[in-house]
Amino acid sequence: MRFGEWDVRTCIAGRFGLDGGAMFGVVPKTMWERLIAPDAYNRVPMVMRVLLVRGHGKTIVVDVGAGAGHSEKNRQIYAFEETDHLGDSIRALGVEPSAVTDVLLTHLHFDHGAGIVEPDGNDWRLLFPNAAHHVQHSQWRHAFAPTPRDKASYYEDRMRVMERDGVLRLHEGPWSLAPGFDLLVFDGHTPGQQLPVIGDERARLFFCGDLIPTHHHIPTPYVMSYDLFPVTVMDEKTSLLERASAGNWLLCFEHDAHVEACRIQKDGRRFSTGERVEIDGK
Which residues contact 224 (CB under 8 A, 6 or more apart)? Predict the structure, then answer.
């Protein structure tokens, strides 16, 4: 699908499950389980959706999923499925991993950033070895000094490979990768979550990351217990949805197993799911 001068495709880097209560915070289970049915362990199905974006001489991957090489404990906790095939998925879209010029990491939680590497004996090697890997400086600092609440979300040994191999690029605040590819910064979920808005005034796509992980999280009170600052998330989300509604942006959901993207409906001060769209037109 075209957004201005950019061609955008999506692929799935893997599937997993997260605790439904944690995904919906203070929303009672009697309400959220009508939206997504949990399994016997109270987990709800999630995907790790990745963008492949081409234009302006660049081939960009936005987020990389959880990758491979997980401990048995984490496999049991998160019910990981098919988490080691991102390279094959990118090839199926006509791009060799070695041809990717930029990897844009929204943040470094394992389900967004651990897939930057693949196992290499007792070590790790970059999945996209020739790409610059872009991270917000505030997120990089936080990832190596997290709170006890979010420490388990970061895989330090994998993150260090970007630094070791000289591909890490740190940014301070909002920035632009190229014309029509802008990064907005949000701090409620975790410090320095950078999310791309792609296109021009005719058509724009916003990749929601963990600001709005599924279309069920569009209503203001629907925020995650994983968010470090949930009230900040509500404020950030409201401001973003105002812009998206006014500009008729398409929102793409990173973790939604059923709705890839949608537009926004606004009724007074309330936002809801509008037209649903499949970016690849399938």
Answer: 22, 23, 24, 25, 189, 210, 213, 217, 230, 233
